[in-house]
Amino acid sequence: RYDVCREGAPAPSWVAYDRQVLRFSAYFQEAVHEKREEKYRIRKCTILYYLEDDSIQVNEARQENSGIPQGTLIRRHRIPQPPPNDDSFYTVDAFNVENSVTLYGRIFTITDCDAFSRNYLTKTGTKVPGPESMEPEDPYFAHRKKEASTMQPHRPYEKCDTLKQFLENDRNVLRFYCVWDNSSEMFGDMRELVLHYFLADDTIEIREVIRANSGRDAAPKFLHRSKVPKDVGALHKPGEITQRTVLNVFGPMGHGGRYILDSLKTGAVEKEFYTDADLTVSAKINVWGREVTVCDMDEFTAHHFNSKYGKEKSTPIHYKQSEAAKAEREIPPYNGWGSEEDSKANCLKLIAQAPKRDFIKFMKKDRQGLDSHVLRFFARLDTNRPIDMDRCFIISFFLSDDTISVFEPEKRNSGIVHGKFIERSKIANIGGKYYSAEDLFVGAVVNFRSHQFVITDADEYAMTYAEKHRAAYR
Question: Could you give the CA distance from residue 292 to residue 284 in angstroms, rounded to a whole number?
Fold first, then answer.
């Protein structure tokens, strides 16, 4: 742990010179004995001197196809001076322009330094000469550089750089809302489309907006991402459209021949493709024989046209079709088979499901001991037929699920079969609403399955229930 320095006391070097580095440009000459083409090499380096601990690091810039290990020649550490002064280390006084230093047997000649190093040495009282203009050049690398400039590739090559466009516009996509009017064809109609224009490579992708229950297959794409030509025309032969035009100068076809790249592109087929400038509101584009009309664009696309072309967003074209009024579903009348709810479930869904019961109400209103939760009424038929005027019926209303059953008691020598008259089920009135407990009271006239009944009396439980729920019967 270091104590805080007193006021006026000098700061330690590792604090005063923290992150302060002197940078020198230098070179050293290396003899080459194993090659006839070169006698020596000039290797350019950068010497970094760290003022905080007098450590030195030497880096060599990498050269293409040099064949020698380059990069960090000497890692950062304190370097001793050559003999006979090998008991001491190099200090900042040994480094200046036009000086030579020996580092592990290699003689480095300093040719220049950066502005910070020049300013520092000047403040310490050291005169710094100007940069050395006669810096030697490696003759072998100069010869290789000259040969590389005149060398032509064996295969014809034409550079087409699209990397800049990709890096600037990657993930920038313009969105247009379009429509394709196919109503002139048999069974054709208006098709809503969404056109995506990719600024990274000028390609177009089209997706179709498929409404629910439209009867169309949900195809993922209307047009695969690709460049769309303005003039479709006839199909070209394989190999007729190429990015390069090659001429056979001499020699046989195939292996052994000599080819050159035709810069004039003689006989090349030029095709013009749609760009973002062609996609404006109300513009019509030919997508492989289908005329697509651009109707609208999103906010990002409008901002792109305003910033690049100075065009304001045009008035969008109304293209969405108004949804037709839904026809009311007609449910056929009840035919008497099963319950009415089961018959209605066959008309509401393709796969019939059993009607759901109110389970909470069922648990509360189900029979509990002597409390039956069943309202019983005495009734007669509302008719003028003499044979039916004396018939009596018992109407039972079950509070657990609002179902009704009608039972006819036995009457001797009446000639009418007694027993169950109407099976227990929910019964709707003439208006289509199911009967509830409030609809059944003494004197009420009800219609069950085209039979009209007049309630004449009720049992004690029904009377008690009506008294307790007097407000519901008003």
Answer: 6
Of the pLDDT bands very low, low, confident and very high (cuts 50, 70, 90), residue 138 is confident
CA distances from 314 to 218, 283, 298, 302, 309 (A): 31, 11, 12, 9, 13
Q: In Å, what is the CA distance from 166 to each residue of 49, 197, 328, 465?
A: 42, 13, 54, 82
Q: Would you call the peptide bond into 84 cis, given omega within 30 degrees of 0 as the criterion?
A: yes
For the chain, the distance separating the N- and C-terminal CA atoms, rounded to the nearest angstrom, is 95
**Average pLDDT rounded to a whole number, residues 207-229:** 87
Strand partners, 407: 394, 420
Q: Tokens at residue 78, please?
A: 């304190």
Instruction: Give 38's contacts (C-beta < 8 A, 6+ positions apart).
Output: 32, 139, 140
Helix (H) or strand (E) holding 46: strand 40-50
- Listed residue (133, 107, 131) closest to 23, CA to CA: 131
Q: Is the pLDDT of residue 2 over 50?
A: no
DSSP 139: H
Q: Could you tell me which residue, 280 or 472, shows the higher pLDDT?
A: 280
Nearest to 394 by CA among 429, 373, 369, 422: 422
pLDDT value, residue 67: 80
The phi, psi pair for 117, rounded to 5°, reads -65, -40
Answer whether 136's CB lies under 8 Å from 39's CB. no
The per-residue pLDDT for range 408-418, each reduced to its tens digit, is: 998 888 888 88
Supply the pTM of this predicted model.
0.43
